[in-house]
Every structure is written in C-alpha cells, then in structure tokens.
Amino acid sequence: MAASKKNAARLGAYLVFVDESGFLLIPTVLRTWAPRGRTPIHRHRYKRDKVSVISGVSVSPQRQRLNFFYRLHVTNIRHVEVCAFLRFLLRHLHGNVIVLLDNSRTHKGEPLRQLRRRHRRLHIEHFPSYAPEINPDEGVWSLAKRAMANGRPDDLLDLLADVAQTLDGIATSSAKLRGCIQQSDLPPFLR
To answer: Is 32 exposed, middle or buried (0-12, 13-18, 19+ CB in 10 A)?
Structure first.
C-alpha cells in the first residue's frame, strides 16, 4: 500500500471536478409518448422535500481511470458538508488531489483553508465565474435528472433511494463518465 501511495505522488495528481445539485420530491416532467388523444396525467403529492448531493468526477494521474464519488444530504450543502466530502475524497484517492470547484460561497472561506492546511496533498482551484459548461460533473446532473424524469417517489426515503440508484448506475459506467468529460468544454488535453 505504501508503494502505491509513493507511485501516485510521483506520477501526478488526481483531478476531481466537484459540484452540487438538488433533487426535489416534486417530479421533473419531460415530454413522453402516449396514444393520440390520451394526455398522460402525472399525479404526485406536493411536498417540497429534497435531496442535496455533492459529487465529484475524478480523473487518475495518467487519465486512464475515471471514478465518481458522491454524498447525499437531506439539508442544504454548506461548508461542513463540502469539507466532509473533501476528506472523503482524500480517504479514497492516494497521492495529490486537485479539486476544481465553482465559485459558490460554500467553496471558499476559513473551513476550507483549515482543511488545506491539515492536508497538504489537497489543492483547491476554482472554475471561472459562470462557466458550468467546463465542469464534467454538470453532465452527471443532466444524466441523473433525465433518468429520474417522470418518476414519482412517494416520500423522501423513496427519493433518496432513487437518487442513489441512479448515481450508482452512472458511477459504474465508464462510458457515461467519459461522455461527461468529453461533452464538457475542457481543453482537449484534459479530456
């Protein structure tokens, strides 16, 4: 195990593209097929419960391996959750880790500075303002929300299960993760 940590540090750093999103209990409705004259009716309970998710698409130092990590929350994501997710990444990725974040207030401030001081192998960079098109994690949200569209979870537990199942399906598909990287406007040498 120690040899693999040394090799990872010597060979480069993991890039991790991080973002957050929310999934509401109120379903997303997309166009669907139905027999002519029979408009589909989508019944649901009107509750504003939601699941917040923080996730990251990681690219190995040699760009050979992609991974997807996520954490679910039933509250809004704040500094505490961002720091916990970054510690989670550090437990799973050996060697240096470069995390790319958007410019949200939760991605800046003293809690993150303290975390960086404690974990020297963690490096945080920020995307330019208003540039979601260069974050591959946005592609994950697009895939997940399309897969869950027209669904009707009954309660928060059903929604948590649906989100976890959908994200697990994305995490196990290297083709989907590679597609998220390729559809982004990242420079070609990062794809």
So the answer is: exposed
